[in-house]
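Sample entry follows:

_____
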Amino acid sequence: MALSFLPKTTAILGNIPSVVIGSSMIYIMSSQIAGGLQIVQSKDYKFEYGLL
C-alpha cells in the first residue's frame, strides 16, 4: 500500500507489458492449483471438509 504513494514506483510498474503480467499470473495460478491438488491427494479428503 505504501508503494501506491511513490510515483516513480507506480511508473515503473505501469511500464511492465501486459503479456509479462499475464504470463506471471498464469504461472502463479497454476502453481496454486498444483499445490491444492497435492493437498487433496495426500489424505482422505471428503466434500464436507471443503465446506465452511
Remarks:
- Residues 13 and 21 are 10 Å apart (CA to CA).
